[in-house]
Write a structure and sequence with these properties.
This protein is an alpha+beta fold. Strands 3, 4, 5, 6, 7, 8 and 9 form a 7-stranded mixed β-sheet that branches. Strands 11-14-13-12-10-15 form a 6-stranded mixed β-sheet. Strands 1-2 form a two-stranded antiparallel ribbon. The chain folds into 2 domains: 189 residues, Trna Endonuclease, Chain: A, domain 1, CATH 3.40.1350.10; 139 residues, ph1033 like fold (Roll). Helices cover 26% and strands 28% of the residues. The longest helix has 15 residues. A hairpin with a 2-residue loop joins β1 and β2.
């Protein structure tokens, strides 16, 4: 059955279903994504629009993620069920062989600046030395037939191809226009299935400390915790960490400062207790702003307990050229050169 979204307006104690309208032009949708790719729910730097392939096709939108992987965003527009998936796969067959230089040329033409400069500005980390090791396909549609959905689901689940569909439903009430978004499959699950067949996971999570206005590494180290928040998209990854998970703490601009094991699941920071039974808020913190929005589940920091197995002060953070760094709050560490380097300094068990 094809995906269907409905939207209701809450008016006092009553619900009013909003009428769904056909988007008058999917070019509007392409423009919206081109102006702000975050509406897809993906953290991307768009590097091309209407990119002409060597085979004469035109990729609607081309992006790169924080790990240097290329993302094809192809709008359904008026394509037939057979064509929309086949065309996306054809584009992927071209993208997979693009070199760094070719991607840089595409980006330069669209961004009017170097790919590296744009990447650093977007993600606040240097671009990986090797990019396009992996790629993914996202079919963007205001509506999609059930046949295309079945094909995409089959390719993803049976063959571990990183392909997915994001839907944008259009609603209108009077002069007010509303846009709703949903995915055919969870993007994180699709990415994880694909990664299984590429680079093995080390079994350790990379955690970006986010040292700054709302938390400090010294507090994390001294009071045995890690946290993230001031927005649901930041706290949600922290909440996925489980007791027993191994973590490597990364301090942006410095390097790796801690290796430890999660000892307690995430709770709102106002409820986080130290091993001695006191609340974190009862202690003298270097960055008390961690308690900002403490009563709001959507905005509060969420903290996990950590047993630190080894830590370093920020002045002695471990780093070297080419070490793995990522703006994501939490991600699975798969970069073997980084693991090999850190295993010289941390009690990491290498299989």
């Amino acid at each position: 059955m094809s995906f269907n979204m409905n939207l209701w307006k809450v008016s006092h104690s009553e619900l009013k279903e909003l009428p769904k309208k056909r988007l008058d032009s999917e070019e509007r949708l392409e423009n919206w994504i081109a102006n702000d790719s975050s509406i897809t729910g993906l953290d991307l730097l768009l590097i091309g629009r209407q990119v002409v392939t060597f085979y004469g096709g035109r990729i609607d939108l081309l992006g790169i993620d924080s790990e240097g992987n290329i993302v094809i965003l192809e709008l359904k527009k008026d394509k037939t069920p057979r064509d929309v998936v086949a065309q996306a796969l054809d584009y992927a067959s071209w993208v997979k062989d693009l070199t760094y230089k070719q991607i840089e040329e595409i980006a330069m033409k669209y961004l009017k600046c170097s790919l590296r400069d744009a990447f650093i500005k977007k993600f606040e980390v240097d671009i990986p030395e090797e990019i396009n090791k992996n790629h993914s396909i996202v079919i963007v549609a205001s509506e999609l037939d059930s046949s295309s959905e079945r094909i995409v689901h089959y390719l993803s689940t049976e063959y571990n191809i990183n392909i997915n569909c994001v839907f944008f439903d259009f609603f209108k009430e009077g002069d007010q226009e509303l846009l709703g978004r949903s995915w055919l499959m969870d993007p994180e699950e699709v990415a994880e299935r694909t990664a299984i067949n590429s680079v093995p996971w080390s079994g350790i999570y990379f955690v970006n400390i986010g040292d700054g206005n709302h938390r400090s590494w010294e507090d994390c180290k001294d009071y045995s915790f890690l946290s993230a928040g001031q927005g649901n998209k930041y706290s949600r990854p922290m909440r996925k960490l489980k007791v027993g998970d191994k973590v490597l703490a990364y301090l942006k601009g410095k390097g790796y400062v801690g290796y430890g094991e999660i000892t307690s699941p995430a709770v709102m920071v106002k409820d986080f207790k130290l091993p001695n039974g006191t609340f974190l808020s009862d202690n003298s913190l270097k960055q008390p702003n961690i308690m900002k929005n403490k009563n709001d589940p959507e905005l509060a920091d969420w903290a996990v307990g950590v047993k630190w197995l080894k830590t370093f002060n920020r002045e002695h953070a471990l780093t070297k050229p080419g070490i793995f760094a990522n703006p994501n709050v939490v991600c699975k560490l798969r970069h073997q050169p980084t693991i090999d380097f850190l295993a010289l300094h941390y009690p990491i068990k290498k299989d």
